[in-house]
Write a structure and sequence with these properties.
CATH class of the largest domain in chain A: Alpha Beta
Low-confidence stretches of chain B: none
GO molecular function, one term (chain B): oxidoreductase activity
Number of helices of chain B: 21
Helix content of chain A: 25-40%
Order of helices and strands of chain A: EEHEEEHHHH
Largest sheet of chain A: 5 strands, mixed
CATH architecture of the largest domain in chain B: 2-Layer Sandwich
Low-confidence stretches of chain A: 160-178
Strand content of chain A: 5-15%
Oligomer: heterodimer
CATH topology of the largest domain in chain B: Aldehyde Oxidoreductase, domain 4
Structural class of chain B: alpha+beta
Structural class of chain A: alpha+beta
Organism (chain B): Rugosimonospora africana
Largest sheet of chain B: 7 strands, mixed
CATH topology of the largest domain in chain A: Ubiquitin-like (UB roll)
Largest interface: A-B, 54 and 53 residues
Shape of chain A: globular
InterPro entries (chain B): Ald_Oxase/Xan_DH_a/b, Ald_Oxase/Xan_DH_a/b_sf, Ald_Oxase/xanthine_DH-like, AldOxase/xan_DH_MoCoBD1, AldOxase/xan_DH_MoCoBD2, AldOxase/xan_DH_Mopterin-bd_sf
Mean pLDDT of chain B: 96
Number of helices of chain A: 5
Strand content of chain B: 15-25%
Keywords (chain B): Molybdenum, Oxidoreductase
Pfam families (chain B): Ald_Xan_dh_C, MoCoBD_1, MoCoBD_2
Radius of gyration of chain A: 16 Å
Number of domains of chain B: 5
Strand order of the largest sheet of chain B: 3-5-1-12-9-10-11
Helix content of chain B: 25-40%
Chain lengths: ~180, ~800
């Protein structure tokens, strides 16, 4: 077991984890962040996408120990503490960019990251930017519309652009038990 | 509450944003995998690595010595109690139905078949301990090819059967009295076109992997499952396990897509039940994506031999369809019936005078097949729309013109087809005109001609699909005549709470379709209450105890009918109460715009909430008035629902690389009146995406030993955003005359329509190269090969 410290959606968690534990398993099974879901086992679908220190990662492709000392933002931490939705969340709702909603947490987090990199993307840039996130319901068209809307809203100051990255938990010296 | 004469705005027809979204966009969703029950254990399943083998030895005892393992068992341990998974659609009396034990006992018949399980404290321990199970297989011959499977002396898929043929089912219009004989039609025809089309095997690939939690520890067995069919599951679990039905509760929580793939009573659900019984603890099983692709049922996989007879002027005289359908190793819940759902659709929107359909279901050592979005109808639509294009080429007509010469005119409805169905309404001319206009059809034809003339290495193709389909499954009597095991009705209940808020219970079971929103809109209009004051409950047999669930584009077409009926009953029950409050005779009460009023008196009405409070108190009700406004309805449809439309697709094909790019896609659908145009458009987008995926991207492939080569999303490739085009979606509106809302089904339409539109476009682009077919999916390699081979069938 290895001791890790994570800041997840603004709360610090210290846990002993098996080295093989994936970040997504740790988030779901230990921390209770079940808003982040698993859709495949080959890192193709992107349903488990979260932000790690503000950058999108597929949390099935990161070991929990690799996230030690970092800040994780999940879909559950995206809205403002008062409950105001992030512009991307709002746009997904307004544009009917989800149906069953299973891909949605990952799709929203990937879109947030995409807009942080490119605040005014073209259609093609959105489609390529979200290539790592599969949706089986929507045909993506309304997702593309939603990302455009969110981009416009964020440009208009309709919400803080990239999510605030909470202060990092201090990494500490450790030995990794294998 | 005093009612003003201001009429509330109509909800039906408005693009209401969805109620469901709030939890889905914030990560508050209740997926089955999120459910944790006190004392719950986790199960892992050992699956066969071989396509066909005898299990000569299996020992699960070593797994029990692994840490955290509570139970381990194989099919042999539960052989006496596990029963056989149900097939509810034995399409013929002679159907061959091999036993389908949830856990294989002596013989495995496809790769991925479950053979043993481990139940442990945590999932990782369960998965780890699978490696300790000792199992010896004796390989048996693997049967994969449909035609070889039917040959004399073929190896057998099941060693305890004498044949690989499941059934042959025939419809002949001459025998049915709905048309002539196809042989006579062909013998007198100026043109006879024969084609073989291959419906490749697909995988529904819903995004939420299947998951099930069973708590069989108490008096009542509770099952949470990511299923489309909680009510069917409850019934069959009770029948299959001998648990009294009233002691079985099934909950479908939030379900992450289905597309027919969760229209199944699965081995995994039954095995988890067995595990909970044996362990005496609640047990959860959640599949991996690899497990899902390997063992959740597949779809399509048919060979279509089509013969179309016509006159030189393009008038079709007869259609003969011979279908060979791959059942896989077992018969799924409705698997044998899937091709039969297509049987009534090969004649499509056309006035064919003679039609014959013969389907042979065949077993192979592959994962069993069953419903996938459209279930039989996309296959039928593909074949007829492909061969109508061949007819157009043969007789030298534009593909739309050859269709026009055969289709049912809008003034001819209701129209009884050669397959015996009565289409209620439609306007193929209007949808086609609109689609042509939106695509710029004539202009694109001119551009195509120019590119052909100049020898442009990037050729333009225009694909046509004028489809209809039968959905709104289904009239119970028709289902009975087709030997289906259940009815096709749907239920709705309205509970009027004392404060005037409304609870709606639907027996349909949504998994992305937006019922909570659409049902609220309907009820708001019917009862004159606010959209926000309606709560829609579903998917839990404790609250929604009666239902036939969601598939076959049926929820609104059938369940919406029941909902409107139930609302009318509520109003009827409220009228005597309102009359009492208004101090008038009940015959003088009218209900309009959300208010009960004395006829001819515009002001001073009473709301449903007033009546609800009055029956809640019940202090002062007239004699004989029951103190409730609640009402139920169960509706059995009298006919199917027949949406239709015209989809046009323009593709650019790079003849040097074989790459296909969709340049424009227009979908004009007529689904009758719509409750929520935003949701309808979303259904069309998603449906088209899945149809395009069949045309261009997806195929489940087995190797010669029966190993699934497309067992992950690396190899089975649902399209990403970068693979799909924007589509232009529009509607024409021909109301369903028998439906109180005028609506038709929409869930499958896009998938049914789009596959032939895309492939017709690809083939159309390549006509100058002598190409008259490209097998699906039309990958760059296949397109390139077709060009090099001048790949034609004619």
């Amino acid at each position: 077991m290895t001791r890790i410290k994570l800041n997840v959606d603004g709360v610090r968690y210290d846990d002993d984890v098996e080295p093989r534990t994936l970040l997504v398993q740790h988030l779901r099974d230990r921390i209770g962040k079940v808003g982040t879901v698993v859709g495949c086992d080959t890192s193709n679908c992107g349903a488990c996408t979260v932000l790690l220190d503000g950058v999108s990662v597929k949390s099935c492709s990161v070991l929990a120990v690799q996230a030690d000392g970092k800040a994780v933002t999940t879909i559950e931490g995206l809205a403002e503490p008062g409950g105001a939705l992030h512009p991307v969340q709002r746009a997904f709702h307004e544009r009917h960019a989800l149906q069953c909603g299973y891909c949605t947490p990952g799709m929203i987090m990937a879109s947030v990251s995409l807009l942080a990199d490119n605040p005014d993307p073209t259609d093609a840039e959105i489609r390529e930017g979200l290539e790592g996130n599969l949706c089986r319901c929507t045909g993506y068209q309304n997702i593309v519309r939603a990302v455009h809307d969110a981009a416009a809203a964020m440009a208009d100051g309709g919400g803080a652009a990239p999510p605030q990255v909470p202060a990092q938990a201090a990494p500490e010296q450790r030995e990794v038990a294998v | 509450m005093t009612i003003t004469s201001q009429a509330p705005a109509a909800e039906v027809g408005a693009a209401r944003k969805r109620k469901e979204d709030a939890r889905l966009i914030t990560g508050q969703t209740m997926w089955t995998e999120n459910i944790v029950v006190p004392g719950m254990l986790h199960m892992a399943i050992l699956r066969s690595p071989l396509g066909h083998a005898r299990i000569s030895r299996i020992d699960t005892a070593p797994a029990l010595r692994e840490p955290n393992v509570v139970a381990a068992f194989s099919g042999r341990d539960v052989a006496d109690v596990q029963g056989s998974l149900p097939c509810a659609w034995p399409v013929t009396a002679e159907l061959v139905m091999p036993a389908h034990p949830p856990l294989a006992v002596d013989e495995v018949c496809h790769t991925g078949e479950a053979v043993a399980v481990v139940v442990a404290r945590d999932r990782a321990s369960a998965v780890d301990a699978l490696a300790a199970i000792e199992i010896d297989y004796e390989p048996l011959p693997v049967v994969l090819d449909l035609e070889a499977a039917l040959a004399d002396g073929a190896d057998l898929v099941h060693t305890d059967q004498t044949t690989n043929k499941a059934y042959t089912w025939i419809f002949d219009s001459a025998q049915a009295g709905t048309g002539g004989a196809v042989d006579e039609a062909a013998s007198g025809a100026e043109v006879v076109i024969r084609r073989r089309y291959r419906q490749q095997r697909l995988i529904p690939a819903f995004m939420e992997p299947r998951s099930v939690v069973v708590d069989a520890t108490g008096d009542q067995v509770t099952v949470w499952s990511a299923t489309q069919i909680p009510h069917v599951l409850r019934f069959l679990l009770a029948v299959g396990t001998g648990t009294p039905e009233h002691r079985v509760r099934v909950v479908a929580p939030d379900v992450g897509g289905g597309f027919g793939g969760k229209l199944q009573v699965t081995p995994e659900e039954m095995i988890t039940y067995l595990a909970s019984k044996r362990a005496g603890r609640p047990v959860k099983y959640t599949e991996t994506r690899s497990d899902s692709l390997l063992s959740a049922h597949h779809g399509r996989d048919m060979i279509q031999d089509i013969e179309l007879s016509a006159r030189r002027d393009g008038t079709v005289l007869g259609l003969n369809v011979r279908l060979t359908a791959n059942m896989g190793a077992y018969l799924g819940l409705v698997g044998p019936g899937v091709p039969i759902l297509g049987a009534f659709m090969y004649n499509a929107i056309y006035k064919f005078p003679a039609y014959r359909f013969e389907c042979t279901g065949v077993f192979t050592n592959t994962t069993f097949t069953d419903a996938y979005r459209g279930a039989g109808r996309p296959e039928a639509t593909y074949a007829i729309e492909r061969i109508m294009d061949e007819l157009a080429v043969e007789v030298g007509l534009d593909p739309l013109e050859v269709r026009r010469r055969n289709w049912i005119g809008h003034e001819e409805f209701p129209f009884t087809t050669v397959a015996g169905l009565t289409y209620d309404s439609g306007n193929y001319e209007a949808a086609t005109d609109r689609a042509k206009q939106l695509l710029g059809y004539d202009e694109l034809r001119r551009e195509q001609a120019a590119r052909r003339a100049s020898g442009d290495p990037v050729q333009l193709g225009i694909g046509v699909s004028t489809y209809t389909e039968m959905c709104g499954l289904a009239p119970s009597r028709v289902l009975g005549s087709l030997r289906y095991g259940a009815g096709g009705w749907e239920s709705a209940s309205i509970r009027v709470l004392p404060t005037g808020k409304i609870e709606v219970v639907t027996g349909s079971s949504p998994h992305g379709q937006g019922h909570e929103t659409a049902w609220s809109q309907i009820v708001a209009d019917q009862l004159g209450v606010a959209f926000e004051d309606v709560e829609v409950l579903h998917g839990d047999t404790r609250t929604a105890y009666k239902g036939m669930d969601t598939y076959g584009s049926r929820s609104l077409a059938v369940g919406g009918f029941a909902l409107v009926n139930a609302c009318k009953k509520v109003i009827d029950k409220a009228k005597p109460v309102a009359a009492h409050l208004l101090e008038c005779d009940v015959s003088d009460v009218e209900f309009a715009d959300g208010a009960f009023r004395v006829r001819g008196t515009p002001d001073g009405g009473r709301s449903l909430a007033d009546c609800a409070l009055a029956v809640f108190a019940a202090h002062d009700l007239p004699d004989g008035v029951e103190p409730t406004l609640d009402a139920d309805d169960v509706y059995d449809p009298v006919n199917f629902s027949f949406p239709h439309g015209t989809h046009l697709c323009a593709v650019e094909v790079d003849t040097e690389t074989g790459r296909v790019t969709i340049r424009a896609y227009v979908a004009v659908d007529d689904v009758g009146r719509v409750v929520n145009p935003m949701i309808v458009e979303g259904q069309v987008h998603g449906g088209v995406a899945q149809g395009v995926a069949q045309a261009l991207f997806e195929e489940a492939v087995y190797d010669a030993d029966g190993n699934l080569l497309t067992g992950t999303f690396v190899d089975y490739t649902p399209p990403s955003a970068a693979d799909l085009p924007d589509i232009v979606s529009d509607r024409t509106e021909t109301p369903a005359p028998d439906h109180p809302l005028g609506t038709k089904g929409v869930g499958e339409a896009g998938t049914i329509a789009s596959t032939p539109a895309v492939v017709n476009a690809v083939v159309d682009a390549l006509r100058p190269y002598g190409v008259d077919d490209v097998p699906m999916p039309c990958t760059p390699e296949r397109v390139w090969q077709a060009i090099r081979n001048g790949g034609g069938q004619s």
